[in-house]
Amino acid sequence: MRYRYEHKYLINAQTAAILRGRASGIMQPDAYADENGGYTVNNVYLDDRYDSYYAAKQLGQYSRDKYRIRHYNNDLSFIRLERKHKEGILNFKETQTITREQYAMIQKGDLSFSLAETAPLWQRLANLHRLRAMRPTVAFAYRRETLTYKPGTVRLTFDSPLFDSGERLTLPPMHSKYVKTYGSQPYSLLLEVKYAGFLPEIIQRLLNGLPLVHTEMSKYAVAREQGLLPRK
C-alpha cells in the first residue's frame, strides 16, 4: 500500500496557460487524452444512511474515506469501484473493476449483490452496506487535463467545474432537495499536484511565483452542496 501526496489549488485560465507553457518539454500529456487534450471523468459517489463520509469532510477529519464509482469519457466498457483513503495530504486508492450489471444495480441503490463478492474491497463495502446502508448520493462529471513526469511519478491535473453527468440514479427522498446546478466560481480550474515520496525540484520550479490559492475543496462535498443530481 503506497501513499501519495496530494495538494489542491484554485487557479484561473491564465495561470493554467502559464503552467502548461512552463511544463512543455518537461511533462507529457496523459496517454488517454482526446483531441482536445483532456478527458471526461464520470463519478457516482456512495455514502451511508448517516452521510458519514460527507460529514467527515465537513468536520475536517484528518483520516477519512470516500467511496465512488468511476468511468471515463462516458464509456462503460471499463468501470471501477474505488475507496480513496486520506491521511491529511497523504492518500491511497483501493480499486476493483465492476461490471455494467453491477453498476446498474448500484445506480438503483441495490448493493445486495456485494454480500456474495469475495474481493477485499467488495467485502469492505458489503460490511458497510450491511451495517449502515450504503447508497448512491450524487452523480457528476468534469473535464480533466493531466500532465505527467515519470521521475517521482508526478501528475498535474487541471479539473474543470463539475457538471451533470447524465447518470440515472434512484435516490432516497431525503435527497430530492439537491436539484440546483453547479454555479460559477472566481477561479475556473482546480489544480491538483500529486506525487510519491518527494516533489522534484524541476516541478517545484514550474509552480514558483504563480498565484496558486491553496484549497481543501472536495468535489464530493461541492456536488452535495450544489445539488449535482441528474436532470429528469
Compact description:
With 232 residues, the protein is an alpha+beta fold. The chain is built from six helices and ten strands.
Kindly describe this structure.
The structure is a single chain. This protein has 232 residues and is an alpha+beta fold. It has helices at 13-23, 52-58, 100-107, 120-132, 201-207, 219-226; strands at 4-11, 28-29, 39-47, 63-72, 75-87, 90-98, 135-149, 154-159, 189-195, 213-214. Strands 1-6-5-4-3-7-8-9 form an 8-stranded antiparallel barrel, surrounded by 5 helices.
End-to-end distance: 41 Å
Strand content: 25-35%
In order across it, which strands form the biggest sheet? Answer: 1-6-5-4-3-7-8-9
Radius of gyration: 18 Å
Low-confidence stretches: 173-185
Category from helices, strands and their pairing: alpha+beta
Q: Which sequence of SSEs, written as H and E, runs from N to C?
A: EHEEHEEEHHEEEHEH
Number of DSSP strand runs: 10
Overall helicity: 10-25%
> Counting H and I runs of at least 4 residues, what is the number of helices?
6
Main β-sheet, in a few words? 8 strands, antiparallel, barrel
Q: What is the overall shape?
A: globular
Mean pLDDT over the full residue set? 87
